[in-house]
Amino acid sequence: MLVSAKEMLQKAKAGHYAVGQFNINNLEWTKAILLTAQENNSPVILGVSEGAGKYMAGYKTVVGMVNGMLEELNITVPVALHLDHGSYDGCMKCIEAGFSSIMFDGSHYPIEENVAKTKELVQICAEKGLSLEAEVGAIGGEEDGVIGKGECADPNECKAIADLGVDMLAAGIGNIHGKYPANWEGLSFETLDAIQQLTGEMPLVLHGGTGIPDDMIKKAIDLGVAKINVNTECQLVFAEATREYIEAGKDLQGKGFDPRKLLAPGAEAIKAKVKEKMELFGSVNKA
Ligand code: 13P
User: Fold this and answer.
1) Is 84 annotated in the active site?
2) Which of 115, 121, 183, 252 is deepest in the core (most CB within 10 A)?
């Protein structure tokens, strides 16, 4: 059964580790991540962007697929199904479809409007038992065609949103989605420290996990990050493994064209990447 991310993140924050949010794109992705979480006895959050939800034939299809896998694959570790960077409408649709967690990304609204909309969602999520992530300070890079800059959030605005009763808070600290440019200045630990001091127990979320050096990830966890989102890195290893298979001509040998064979190296590559991240984040054996 899907669970809210609230408890797993509170445990992570108190235990000084982080739970990975791995974004899903299709059945292979979902299965690879769930099996890896189970094999490593780790809690996990499956992230679904609005674009990926549409691609997978809608939120209800996603909920059906994930619930089916939890049962058929005997997944017993805590799993949350989370809308990533949701609009207000997207949040409503996912609540109705059966997601167990949502992110309302109101970072592009003026703070008053972000507060007002987040407040409404706090109430609805509390009634229905879902966890809610809010965002302050836009996270740069490209996500579903929207390109933002790597802002640093205002710690006082973070405190204002945290006090509304959200379960986790994403705050921009110079992180961006996708690959980091060569001239990236790194995470702003000064900003993170200031946010954590004002928001206390609130589990903080680090978006744009792809390409952040391991030592920065560890320092971010030390400073209160309890959820780390990874998407692009799984896409890169999937593409690389699939390319190797095709370049080696394996799709032309025997029944190598069978999608169950063609997509297997990519799925294995995702499993290895997710395991590596779970070890780095410290969530192994924390289910
Ligand atoms: P990356 O694609 O950079 O790993 O970011 C993932 C993310 O933050 C999803 O919200």
Assistant:
1) yes
2) 121
